[in-house]
């Protein structure tokens, strides 16, 4: 275990990490554990342990995993996950669960899979990112105390007043998809988190991301949309167009984005680029 470090984000989903921390201390008292006070703190921890650690275990949600991934991407270091977030989209899609014994077995076995990631104007995303309605919800959600209930409340309120965004694809082959949309998602894996499958056919190891273009639908359709999303049936939805791409260049009428669920501002024009097989994940 000397070459393994556990990076815990205490701000992920209501301190979900505490039982994990206790169990880890019991099983492996000598484990290297860092309780991260900030994203920069995590960066510094990884840098200062670079020579002695080759498996970095992110304990948190997609935001935490993404900060660890930023440092180890395109290197031979390995990412492992103990899911302790609220949505846990990426960890579900990479088969990590909240069973510490299973995680320790995987660490011992050291099987690795290399997966794709992508960037949006140079910023890393590992799972699903998006703009439009989605980006606006992420922005408003940050102002609340978070949680699933607040997410639904904010989504409904935002939906009622939301005007579609305008997307103009600069890339010649994508020009025909330009138009007005409720949202654009960029999906490396199939789900946002909480088993909400926005792109049921996406694969994290095919060198592509799915552009998910969603047209505005009437409010009465929202429960149908949600039902299809949670049962992996959105593929043939009348309001959605899926476009698998290696890269895309577009102009867009909003700066509100979320990257793996974290709100961020991104100025138009926007360039999306897949980084094929750029992240080693423990299997
Ligand atoms: N390494 C880190 N150290 C400290 N804080 C972090 C770190 N990485 C991200 N954060 C902050 O912690 C907050 C929660 O992170 P995270 O996304 O992991 O949990 P979550 O939102 O509960 O889970 P999920 O993304 O699965 O819904 C984020 O708002 C993020 O800004």
TrEMBL record:
Keywords: ATP-binding, Kinase, Lipid biosynthesis, Lipid metabolism, Magnesium, Metal-binding, Nucleotide-binding, Phospholipid biosynthesis, Phospholipid metabolism, Transferase. GO terms for molecular function: kinase activity. SUPFAM superfamilies: NAD kinase/diacylglycerol kinase-like. Its cofactor is Mg(2+). The keyword Ligase does not apply. Residues 1-124 form the DAGKc domain. It comes from the Bacteria. PANTHER family: LIPID KINASE YEGS (PTHR12358:SF106), SPHINGOSINE KINASE (PTHR12358). This is YegS/Rv2252/BmrU family lipid kinase.
């Amino acid at each position: 275990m000397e070459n393994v470090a556990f990076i815990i984000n205490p701000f992920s989903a209501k301190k979900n990490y505490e039982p994990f921390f206790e169990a880890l201390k019991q099983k492996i008292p000598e484990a290297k554990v860092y309780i991260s006070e900030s994203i920069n703190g995590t960066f510094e921890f990884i840098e200062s342990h670079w020579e002695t650690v080759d498996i970095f275990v992110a304990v948190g949600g997609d935001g935490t995993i993404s900060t660890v991934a930023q440092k180890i991407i395109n290197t031979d270091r390995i990412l492992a996950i103990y899911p302790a977030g609220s949505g846990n989209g990426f960890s579900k899609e990479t088969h990590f669960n909240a069973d510490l014994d299973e995680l320790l077995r995987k660490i011992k076995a050291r099987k690795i899979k290399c997966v794709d990631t992508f960037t949006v104007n140079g910023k890393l995303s590992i799972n699903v990112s998006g703009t439009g309605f989605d980006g606006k919800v992420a922005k408003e959600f940050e102002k609340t105390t978070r949680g699933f209930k607040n997410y639904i409340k904010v989504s409904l309120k935002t939906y009622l007043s939301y005007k579609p965004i305008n997307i103009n694809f600069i890339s010649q082959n994508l020009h025909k998809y330009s138009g007005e949309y409720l949202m654009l998602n960029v999906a490396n894996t199939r789900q946002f988190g909480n088993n909400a499958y926005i792109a049921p056919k996406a694969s994290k190891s095919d060198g592509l991301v799915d552009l998910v273009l969603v047209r505005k639908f009437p409010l009465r359709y929202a429960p149908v949309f949600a039902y299809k999303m949670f049962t992996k049936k959105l593929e043939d939805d009348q309001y959605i167009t899926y476009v698998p791409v290696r890269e895309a260049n577009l102009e867009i009428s909003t700066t509100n984005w979320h990257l793996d669920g974290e709100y961020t501002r991104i100025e138009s024009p926007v360039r999306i680029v897949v980084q094929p097989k750029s992240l080693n994940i423990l299997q």
